[in-house]
Amino acid sequence: MTENGAALALDGVSHSYGGGAPALDAVSLVVPRGRFVAVMGRSGSGKSTLLRCAAGLERPTAGTVRIGGTDLATLKSAGLTRLRRDRVGFVFQSLNLVSALNVRENVTLPLLLAGAREGRELDGRALAGLAAVGLADRAEDVPENLSGGQRQRVAIARALVNEPEVVFADEPTAALDPVTAAGVLALLRRAVDERGRTVVLVTHDPVAAAWTDEAVFLESGRMVGRLDRPDEAGVRAALGASAGQHLAVAR
Ligand SMILES: Nc1ncnc2c1ncn2[C@@H]1O[C@H](COP(=O)(O)OP(=O)(O)OP(=O)(O)O)[C@@H](O)[C@H]1O
C-alpha cells in the first residue's frame, strides 16, 4: 500500500511538549483503508501523543501526517477542526457522551455539527447506528442510565455515524470488565470487516490487541516493532522484548 492510497500515513513524525525530550521520535506508519491497527507500549511510551498527532489534535514538531491523502500541515486551524469533525471519529476511555442529550441525540451530534438538518433522515441514521451496536431500544434514554459498556457502544455508534476515514480509539475498554470489553472490541472489528472502516486503537492490553490486524510497538517515543495478525502471546512477548531493549539501553 502506498502512502497516497492509505487512510492514514505518518512520515517521520516527532513531537516534543514545550521543547522537552521528544514524546514521539521520527515515527512512520502507513495504515491502509479497512485495517485495524493497535498502537502499544508501556505508560509514557508515546501512544496518546501518536494518536493526538495522527488525529490532528496536536501539531507535530516534525514530520508529515496525511489522512486520506490530505497533509494536515496544509490546514489552518479551522480546516483542521473541520477535518476532525467530518473525516475522523473518536472514542475515548471515558467522558464520551454529552449528559444533557439523550442517546439518539448524542449519536446525531457529529452530523448536526457538520451542518445536517434535524429530522427524520438524521434520526434514521442514528437509529441504524444504534441498532448496529445493539442499542436501538435505548435511543430515548439518557447516558447516565446506561452501563459503562453500553455508553462505549453509543460512543462507537457516534464515532461511525459520519462514515469517517479513520476512527481513533484511545483505551476505549480500559474501564470495562473483560466480557464487556470484548463486546466493544467486537464492534470495532465488525466496523472494519463489514463496513470497511479504518481503526487505530491505542491500548496497553494484549487481549485487546489480539482483535486487530496489526500491532505496532512504541518505546520512548520510537517505533520498535510490529506484529501482523497479533495474538495475545505474541504481543506479550513483543512487549517484553521491547521493555528488555529499553532496560539494556538504560544501563
Ligand atoms: N501535555 C503534555 N505536556 C508535557 N508532557 C507530556 C504531555 N502529554 C504527554 N507528555 C509526555 O510525553 C510522553 C509520552 O506521553 P503519552 O501520553 O503519549 O504516553 P502514553 O504511551 O500514551 O502513556 P499512557 O499509557 O500512560 O497513557 C511522556 O513522557 C509524557 O510525560
From TrEMBL:
GO cellular component, as recorded: membrane protein complex; plasma membrane
CDD domains per UniProt: ABC_MJ0796_LolCDE_FtsE
GO molecular function: ATP binding; ATP hydrolysis activity; transmembrane transporter activity
Ranges where the ABC transporter domain occurs: 8-245
Keyword match Aminoacyl-tRNA synthetase: no
Xref: SMART domains: AAA (SM00382)
Keyword Transport applies: yes
Pfam families in UniProt: ABC_tran (PF00005)
Keywords for the protein's UniProt record, in alphabetical order: ATP-binding, Nucleotide-binding, Transport
PANTHER family: ABC TRANSPORTER RELATED (PTHR24220:SF685), IMPORT ATP-BINDING PROTEIN (PTHR24220)
Name of the protein in question: ABC transporter ATP-binding protein
Record organism: Streptomyces gardneri
